[in-house]
Amino acid sequence: MKLIVGLGNPGEKFEGTRHNIGFDVVDLLARDMTTGQVTWDKNQKHNAFLYKISDVVFVKPLTFMNNVGITVGSLVAFYKLDPSDVWVIHDDIDLPLGKIRVRRGGGSAGHHGIESIMAHLKTDQFVRFRLGVGRDVVSRGPNVNKKLDHRRVIAFVLSRFGRGEAGEMKHLVKRGSQAVRVALFDGFDRAQNQFH
After folding, report:
1. Could you tell me the CATH number of the domain that includes residue 159?
2. Which cellular component terms (GO) are annotated to the entry (predicted)?
């Protein structure tokens, strides 16, 4: 069984933001992998929207990003899963807009959702589909190596994609969905090689 978790924040005000691209990919993936309409189950026990197809459970946590580990840990315990069966789809400001990296394990790179999952699973050995959402303007030009102020990072990831980025964002969601499907049907190594 695989637990495929899209990261995002619940609520209308966060829809379409960079931080919610994990939700967008999971929505598309669930639609692409079913023949009928996708009806998400609002599960109170795990505090998440769930959608199950065969041995794959799609998850959109209803906790805010900093606490997604609570939902993931609860589902891992309920299904008795190994952490390697947890696949997390999330935004990454350290990758250029449109880039995808598939990896198992590693640090959080400051992503609070990943930090929360690591804390609750007590390991970093889960799969991540990192989706590049670009960088704030302060990190371009002569300040390229300057560390972004924490508040600016938060404001940036909670911002919506600009008009000029909309096409690339849609393409990124589509490619993110394809990357997960390749990993499911052709293996993790194939996905890692193809989406790099």
Report:
1. 3.40.50.1470
2. cytoplasm
